[in-house]
């Protein structure tokens, strides 16, 4: 059996197992609003079905829910990230890796201002909401589906560790509002560094155990596990996620930094990067994405930076909790990084 037939056979077997257990069928995909933005005096149209369409919509329109316990019998679609890595599915959208709740559009009135952020008038404009589905996402679980998987001999409560990090972030933002924290940016970044390291380690060991089942090979040597975790963690902060403050980077230098990240690799391999710029003077969190687009004549690729959300910390409410927005954004970046990098090793 050649490798292509072998891969097809494995995929069919995986799908049959999911179907037998009641988890068969394709993941539901949604159609998000398309956008038009300005770049170098040109009008560029961003497809709502792109990764950025998902990121922008969920950062602005969807309520974030925090699950405080791991399901005893998780949906087998929690393994979707591993299947996409194994079959090198580069076109897979990030929405498949999160639990999403929907509401029938017939029972919900859409606000004309829905989907816009405080920066919409200067960065992009929502111009339609396609009627390709009668459902729209309303809630999303903060932590990715893959967290629900319990790996063999796993003794640590990974979800509890992640919630502890979430609570630490919440405490820091509350102290900032009371003017009793000295350097919020550095404290938040340290928590995020710890959070990212924990999630990557958790997913990598689950990935290795999943490969044992699929390939019947021993891939869980401690040395290779540690090397892989360290390598992916380093790539995450160098290529997939960037966080800077106004005290060290102007908005221009920050944007240039994102463009440099694009030049480090082939843009065809990845279509989005994540970045946060913190205006410490005005207490504003600016969530940005770097995306690659074809020019209008399709002659070349343009790398552009667009804002997915602007958040004024002093004006946040329960639906705009900065710790939830920040961790959801980071989780999206982690899943993009893992999807691109796990299958390389």
TrEMBL record:
Name of protein: Uncharacterized protein
UniProt source species: Tetrapisispora phaffii (strain ATCC 24235 / CBS 4417 / NBRC 1672 / NRRL Y-8282 / UCD 70-5)
Gene name per UniProt: TPHA0P01110
